[in-house]
Design brief:
two-stranded antiparallel sheet, D-Maltodextrin-Binding Protein, domain 2, six-stranded mixed sheet, alpha+beta, 2 domains
């Protein structure tokens, strides 16, 4: 690590929780209880965000961010004025739906009901993704539309959700008009074009993309070295090629170099799309398991879309009531 080479007072020692995901998470929870988690915690984008937010193990980073030398004005997906930020990401990935001219009027975003109405009218299908991939994008990544942790309620048992599940089940077609496009690095971003039309589906407002935080970085709340660790986190944001292996940088300029320009990706359509994107900010393993456990039965015709909606509604309501 470069930090170890240039810093004479502190040395970073790593602890790996990722050898097996489930057992790693279990060990992490045990270490939280024992107060033995690392001073700096770095995780992949799929880690349960509720685990990170609700266990009182991580420092609130909002003041660090407000006073930082790093600019968060380009693509950073979080609201930096938020009073509680427990993890931060130097790189992102994003997903969009690529479409033909039929839906070009909805480039600014479209609600689920409006999308389903248009898809029925024009018989719109997806040509490049599986049922599972489409389910992940339209349901799992959109949990904000269906789950309210504050009121401990969920909203899966609705006509719109039932219609959405029916659509997902039958949305695959070799000559479909729509494509699901995921971008996690500059190589994939080469396929992005200002000549194409893109949109996103959400019931929380009009958005242009799903934005994922590919790496989450947190500081242990009882660490004796918080300022030093924050200095390391800032160095990661500004470390050039090292972070490009993990996603797209949230800042256009890294060490004075604009990597988006370097890769010939400087069109305003991309920047506008990201600036109006929606952060995927709920990753709850327990809810994911409930949704996936019932999915095969629905896809294989053992239960209807209405039964699927009722089953997951009841199970997730029970889970929320026990939080």
């Amino acid at each position: 690590m470069n930090f170890n080479h240039v810093n004479k007072d502190y040395y970073i020692v790593t602890q790996d929780y990722s050898k097996t995901f489930d057992s790693g998470i279990d060990q992490f929870k045990i270490d939280i209880i024992k107060g033995k988690i690392p001073d700096l915690f770095i995780s992949g984008g799929s880690l349960d965000t509720k685990l990170m937010e609700n266990n009182n193990a991580f420092e609130n980073l909002s003041e660090y961010i407000k006073n930082s030398k790093i600019s968060f004005e380009d693509f950073y997906p979080k609201d930096i004025d938020n009073s509680e930020i427990f993890y931060i990401s130097p790189v992102i990935g994003f997903g969009v739906i690529e479409n033909n001219s039929i839906l070009s009027e909805f480039e600014g975003g479209i609600s689920t009901a409006d999308f389903l109405e248009k898809s029925k009218k024009y018989n719109l299908k997806f040509s490049n993704c599986t049922i599972s991939q489409l389910f992940d994008y339209l349901v799992v990544d959109n949990l904000d539309d269906y789950v309210d942790y504050t009121s401990k309620k969920c909203y899966f048992k609705t006509d719109t959700f039932v219609d959405l599940m029916e659509y997902i089940k039958n949305a695959e077609s070799s000559n479909g008009e729509l494509k699901l496009a995921i971008y996690n690095n500059f190589y994939e971003l080469m396929n992005f074009s200002s000549e194409k039309s893109y949109f996103d589906i959400s019931d929380k407002g009009l958005f242009t993309a799903h934005i994922n935080e590919n790496i989450k970085m947190s500081i242990y709340i009882n660490s004796e070295y918080k300022d030093v660790i924050w200095g390391f986190i800032e160095s990661v944001f500004d470390s050039g090629e090292q972070i490009l292996n993990y996603g797209l940088p949230v800042s256009k300029d890294i060490n004075g170099l604009n990597y988006y320009n370097s890769y010939a990706i400087s069109n305003q359509k991309l920047f506008s799309l990201l600036s109006r994107g929606r952060l995927v900010n709920i990753s709850d393993k327990n809810i994911h398991n409930i949704l996936y456990n019932e999915l095969d039965s629905f896809i294989n015709g053992k239960i209807t879309a209405s039964e699927y909606a009722e089953n997951v509604q009841n199970q997730i309501m029970l889970y929320l009531s026990e939080l």
